[in-house]
Write a structure and sequence with these properties.
Shape: flat
Helix content: over 70%
Strand content: under 5%
Distance between the termini: 47 Å
Length: about 90
């Protein structure tokens, strides 16, 4: 039982981690001529953390009270797009 849990955790953290995949492989070649993985990693972590917090607040205070739960995906996309543009300025 413990070995199965350990294999699952290792797989999720190091192999199937979308954050590591997107940080080290996808954005770096397409955004810059120079390879700057630490800056890109910080930007991806910043966007994902803030997107989660802001989307949760939008859902809690806007979508649920006004019964607009079907707009969750659009709200998440808009928040991520706004944060990416914010990070792009720096």
């Amino acid at each position: 039982m413990f070995s199965d849990l350990a294999v699952l955790m290792f797989s999720c953290v190091l192999i199937n981690n979308i954050l590591l995949i997107s940080t080290w492989q996808l954005p770096v070649p397409g955004t810059s001529r120079r390879w700057k993985p630490p800056r890109m990693a910080m930007a991806v972590v910043f966007v994902l953390v803030l997107a989660g917090i802001i989307t949760w607040l939008v859902e809690l205070y806007v979508l649920v009270p006004f019964d607009l739960k079907y707009l969750r995906t659009m709200a998440f996309i808009l928040v991520i797009a706004a944060l990416v543009q914010f990070v792009k300025c720096f």
